[in-house]
Design brief:
It is built from one helix and ten strands; from the N terminus they run E-E-E-E-E-E-E-E-H-E-E.
Length: 120
């Protein structure tokens, strides 16, 4: 039976993620609205799938199928704006900016590094 060794719970839209799957059999991916970018050769019974998430926010279910069984994982796809908005997941407040749970206000007044060469 295939085993998903790691899978993210949340990914930014359009990003590529790596999902390792352990199985002694040949495994195929049913990607749904995601796109398979590359499937690495199986090494030590682990096949790595590189999958591009869709550019639209929502849920994506990836299903890994062998001749004898299948497993699936669901990944939440979010936009950058959704990621930056204050929200709670698994008992934690995100984004992890101080003060927690409040909107972030930047104190930055300019470039940190000078981009022009110093005069001698």
């Amino acid at each position: 039976m295939p085993e998903i060794l790691w899978s993210p719970s949340v990914v930014l839209a359009g990003r590529v993620v790596r999902i390792p799957v352990r199985t002694s059999e040949e495994v195929k991916l049913i990607a749904g609205s995601a796109q398979l970018v590359q499937q690495a050769e199986r090494v030590n019974d682990v096949t790595r799938f590189f999958v591009r998430m869709p550019y639209v926010a929502g849920e994506v279910t990836l299903q890994f199928v062998t001749a004898s069984a299948n497993v699936a994982t669901t990944i939440q796809v979010v936009t950058l704006a959704e990621c930056r908005a204050v929200h709670q997941r698994a008992g934690n407040i995100y984004p992890r900016r101080w003060p927690l749970g409040e909107e972030y206000i930047s104190n930055k007044q300019g470039a940190t590094w000078s981009m022009s060469p110093r005069s001698l």
